[in-house]
Design the sequence.
C-alpha cells in the first residue's frame, strides 16, 4: 500500500508526464504539420501544469496582500480567493522545499502585524507555527525520496475552517514565483505557435500541401525529376 | 548613475529597443537602406560595448549588474566573467561583421518589402544570444534563448524566395527548437523545486554537497534541451537544412554564434550551476558527452564529405566541430575547458568567414552547389582566397586559429592521459581535409563550365567584412594572448580556481 500511496500522492506528476508523453508522441508520429503543432502545444502545456502544481502549497491561498486585509477577513468577509484550493493550514514542517517564498512573506507578516488572531489558531488547532526559515531553505537531507515525499498538493486539507484561518497572522500563501515564470513561458508558447502556424500557411502556399510525406515527395520530384516510388521501381 | 555603471545592460537594451524602430523604417524609399545603416550602426555600438565589457572584466574582474537594482537572488542579475565576456565579444563581433555584409546579399535573396523586418529580426536574434550569454539567472536564459530562436525561425524562413525548402527547414527547426527549450524548462523546474532559487550563483550554493535523483533528472533535462539547441551529435537533424536554405547572411550569423552560445550554456550549467564535483557529472562526461562528441566528430565529418551542397557541407562540419568543443569539456580538466573555450571562439571566426564566402558565391553565381564553385579561383579571386584560408583554418593548418584550437585540444587530451582521444581528433581532422579539399580542388583546378556567363567579384561591402574575419583568423592564429590567455583564466575561474 505504501507504493500505492506514494504513487497516488504524486498525481500531479502523473498528469504532467502523461500529457508530456502524449504531446511528444503526437509531434513525432503525426505527419500533418498542424497536428504536429498541436502536439507541441500539449507538450508545452504539460510543463505549464507541472510548474503551476509545484507552486501550490498545502493550505496556501492566492499570494495577494492588501493592506488591512487581515482585519477585514477577520470580520468574516473572505474573498473566496482560495475557493477550490485548500484552505486549512496543514504544512509539513521541514518537508516542503518550496516554502522559501512563503516563509519570507510570513516573517514580514508576523513582524508587521501583531494580531490577536493567534488565539484563533489555538482554537482551531489546525495551524502549526511555521518552521524556521533555514530549515526549509536548505534541501531536505537524505536524497531524492525526501524531496519527492513532499506532496505538493494536498487536497485532503480542504476544510471548512476556511476563511477563519486567514484571520490569524500565519497566513500561508502559495508560491507565486512558478506561476509568474510560467506566465512568461505561456507567452513564449503562444509566440511559438503563432510563428509555427504562419510557417504552415506559407508552406501551404508554396507546396499546396501540409502533409509531411507529400512535402518530401514534392521536394524529391523537384530535385530528381521523379517521385521516390518511380525511382525505386526503376532501380 | 553614470553610463559606465550601466554598461552591462547596454548590449541587451540597445538592440532590443532598436529592433522595433527598424520595423518602422521605409522599405520602398532608398531600397531599405535606412534600416540597413541603422542596424549596422547599432551592431557596431553593441560590439563596442561588449569589447569595453571584456576589457573591464579582464582588468578589474567579474561584474555583477542588478537589473532594476533588485539584489540577487531575488532580482535578475547579469553576471559577466571572462568566459561570457569572451562569448559576448564573439557574438557581437560577428554581428558587427554580418550586418554590413548583409545588404547586397539580402536584397538578392529575400523579398524586398521584408528588408526592414529582416533587420529587426536579426537585431532581436542578436539580442537573444547576447542575453543568454550575459545573464546570471537560469530562467532568464530560457527567455532569451526563445527570443533568439523565434527570430531565427523567421530569418531561416525568409530564404523561401530562393528555395521553398527554407520553409520546411524552418518548421523543423521550430519543432526541434521548441522541444529543446521545453526540456530546458522542465530541467529548470526540477532544479528550482530542489533549491527554491533560480539565480545561478545561488543555485550553486544551494546545490553544493547535495546529490539526489531530482537534481540529476534536472541536469539531464537541461543538458538534453540545450544539446538540441547546440546541435549536439544525435540531435543535430534540424541544423543542416536550416543552414543550407537560410539566406546567406543569416547562415553566416547563426552558424557562427547560436550553437556556440548553446555550448557556452552547457559549460555554464556544468561548472557554475551544478558544479563539477557532483558524482553524476563525471558519469555524464565519461558515458555521455565524450562518446557523443567523438561519434559526432566522425559521423558528421563523413556525412560532410558526401554533400554536394557547400552550405550543407559546412553545416555538417559544424556538428563535428561542436563535437570538438564538447570533447574538451568532457576531459574535466582546466586545459580541456580552455581548449573548448578557445575553439568556441575560433570556430565562430572560421564558420563566419566560410559562410560569408559561400554567400558571395551565391550572389554572383546563384547557387551553393559544389559545381557552382568550378574555376572560382580565377573568376572571383578574393572570395576564393577567403574560402581557402578559412577552410585551411577549419582543417587546423598552422598560422591559423584552427591550429591553435586543435593544438590546445591535443595537449589537453595528452595531458589528461587520453592519448587515444588525441589520435581520434587528428583522424577526424583528416576527414575535414577531404571535405574542404574537395571544394578547394574544384575552385582551383576545375575550369569554369564552358557556357558560364562571366561573373564579377562580389561587391566591396561584402568583401571587406569577409576579409576582416579572415584576417582575424590569421591574427588570432599568430597572437594568442587575447584568446588563449583569456580562455585559460576563464577556465581557471570556472573550475573554481578563483576562490
Sequence:
Amino acid at each position: 500500500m505504501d507504493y500505492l500511496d506514494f504513487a497516488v500522492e504524486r498525481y500531479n506528476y502523473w498528469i504532467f508526464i502523461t500529457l508530456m508523453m502524449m504531446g511528444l508522441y503526437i509531434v513525432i508520429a503525426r505527419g500533418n504539420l498542424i497536428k504536429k503543432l498541436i502536439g507541441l502545444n500539449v507538450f508545452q502545456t504539460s510543463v505549464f501544469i507541472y510548474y503551476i502544481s509545484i507552486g501550490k502549497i498545502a493550505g496556501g491561498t492566492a499570494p495577494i496582500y492588501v493592506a488591512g486585509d487581515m482585519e477585514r477577513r477577520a470580520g468574516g468577509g473572505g474573498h473566496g480567493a482560495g475557493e477550490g484550493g485548500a484552505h486549512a493550514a496543514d504544512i509539513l514542517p521541514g518537508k516542503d522545499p518550496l516554502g522559501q517564498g512563503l516563509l519570507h512573506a510570513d516573517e514580514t507578516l508576523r513582524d508587521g502585524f501583531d494580531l490577536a488572531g493567534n488565539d484563533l489558531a489555538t482554537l482551531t488547532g489546525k495551524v502549526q507555527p511555521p518552521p524556521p526559515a533555514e530549515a526549509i531553505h536548505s534541501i531536505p537531507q537524505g536524497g531524492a525520496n525526501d524531496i519527492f515525499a513532499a506532496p505538493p498538493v494536498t487536497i485532503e486539507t480542504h476544510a471548512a475552517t476556511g476563511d477563519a484561518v486567514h484571520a490569524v497572522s500565519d497566513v500561508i500563501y502559495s508560491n507565486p514565483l512558478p506561476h509568474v515564470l510560467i506566465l512568461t513561458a505561456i507567452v513564449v508558447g503562444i509566440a511559438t505557435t503563432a510563428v509555427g502556424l504562419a510557417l504552415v500557411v506559407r508552406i501551404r502556399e508554396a507546396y499546396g500541401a501540409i502533409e509531411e510525406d507529400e512535402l518530401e515527395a514534392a521536394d524529391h520530384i523537384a530535385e530528381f525529376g521523379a517521385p521516390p516510388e518511380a525511382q525505386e521501381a526503376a532501380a | 548613475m553614470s553610463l559606465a555603471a550601466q554598461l552591462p545592460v547596454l548590449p541587451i537594451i540597445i538592440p532590443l529597443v532598436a529592433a522595433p524602430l527598424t520595423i518602422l523604417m521605409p522599405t520602398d524609399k532608398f531600397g531599405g537602406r535606412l534600416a540597413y545603416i541603422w542596424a549596422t550602426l547599432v551592431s557596431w555600438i553593441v560590439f563596442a560595448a561588449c569589447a569595453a565589457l571584456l576589457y573591464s572584466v579582464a582588468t578589474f574582474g567579474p561584474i555583477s549588474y542588478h537589473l532594476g537594482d533588485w539584489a540577487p537572488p531575488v532580482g535578475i542579475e547579469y553576471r559577466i566573467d571572462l568566459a561570457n565576456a569572451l562569448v559576448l565579444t564573439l557574438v557581437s563581433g560577428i554581428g558587427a561583421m554580418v550586418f554590413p555584409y548583409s545588404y547586397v546579399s539580402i536584397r538578392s535573396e529575400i523579398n524586398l518589402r521584408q528588408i526592414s523586418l529582416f533587420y529587426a529580426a536579426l537585431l532581436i536574434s542578436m539580442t537573444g544570444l547576447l542575453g543568454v550569454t550575459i545573464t546570471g539567472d537560469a530562467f532568464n536564459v530560457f527567455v532569451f534563448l526563445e527570443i533568439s530562436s523565434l527570430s531565427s525561425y523567421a530569418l531561416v524562413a525568409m530564404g523561401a524566395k530562393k528555395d521553398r525548402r527554407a520553409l520546411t527547414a524552418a518548421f523543423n527547426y521550430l519543432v526541434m527548437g521548441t522541444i529543446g527549450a521545453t526540456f530546458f524548462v522542465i530541467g529548470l523546474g526540477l532544479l528550482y523545486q530542489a533549491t527554491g532559487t533560480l539565480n545561478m550563483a545561488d543555485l550553486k550554493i544551494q546545490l553544493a554537497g547535495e546529490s539526489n535523483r531530482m537534481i540529476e533528472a534536472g541536469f539531464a533535462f537541461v543538458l538534453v534541451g540545450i544539446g538540441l539547441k547546440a546541435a549536439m551529435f544525435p540531435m543535430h537533424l534540424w541544423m543542416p537544412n536550416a543552414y543550407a536554405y537560410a539566406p546567406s547572411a543569416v547562415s553566416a550569423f547563426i552558424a557562427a554564434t547560436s550553437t556556440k552560445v548553446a555550448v557556452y550554456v552547457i559549460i555554464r550549467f556544468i561548472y557554475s550551476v551544478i558544479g563539477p564535483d557532483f558524482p553524476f557529472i563525471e558519469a555524464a562526461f565519461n558515458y555521455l558527452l565524450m562518446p557523443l562528441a567523438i561519434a559526432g566528430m566522425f559521423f558528421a565529418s563523413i556525412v560532410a564529405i558526401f554533400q554536394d551542397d557547400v552550405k550543407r557541407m559546412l553545416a555538417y562540419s559544424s556538428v563535428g566541430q561542436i563535437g570538438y568543443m564538447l570533447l574538451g569539456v568532457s576531459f574535466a580538466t582546466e586545459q580541456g575547458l580552455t581548449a573548448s573555450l578557445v575553439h568556441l571562439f575560433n570556430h565562430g571566426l572560421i564558420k563566419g568567414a566560410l559562410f560569408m564566402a559561400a554567400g558571395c558565391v551565391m550572389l554572383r553565381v546563384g547557387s551553393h552547389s559544389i559545381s557552382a564553385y568550378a574555376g572560382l579561383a580565377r573568376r572571383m579571386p578574393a572570395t576564393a582566397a577567403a574560402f581557402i584560408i578559412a577552410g585551411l583554418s577549419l582543417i587546423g593548418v598552422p598560422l591559423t586559429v584552427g591550429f591553435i584550437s586543435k593544438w590546445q585540444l591535443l595537449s589537453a587530451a595528452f595531458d589528461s592521459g587520453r592519448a587515444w582521444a588525441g589520435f581520434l581528433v587528428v583522424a577526424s581532422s583528416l576527414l575535414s581535409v577531404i571535405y574542404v579539399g574537395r571544394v578547394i580542388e574544384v575552385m582551383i583546378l576545375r575550369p569554369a563550365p564552358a557556357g558560364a556567363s562571366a561573373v564579377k567579384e562580389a561587391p566591396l561591402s561584402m568583401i571587406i567584412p569577409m576579409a576582416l574575419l579572415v584576417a582575424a583568423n590569421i591574427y588570432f592564429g599568430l597572437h594568442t594572448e587575447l584568446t588563449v590567455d583569456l580562455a585559460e583564466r576563464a577556465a581557471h575561474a570556472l573550475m573554481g580556481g578563483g576562490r
Summary: Residues 76-168 of chain A have pLDDT under 50 and may be disordered. The two ends of chain A are 62 Å apart (CA to CA). Residues 176-207 of chain A form the longest helix (32 residues). Chain A touches chain B at residues 20, 24, 27, 33, 36-37, 40, 43-44, 47, 50-51, 54, 97-101, 137-139, 143-144, 146-148, 177-178, 181, 184-185, 188, 191-192, 195-196, 199-200, 202-203, 206-207, 215, 219 (CB under 8 Å).
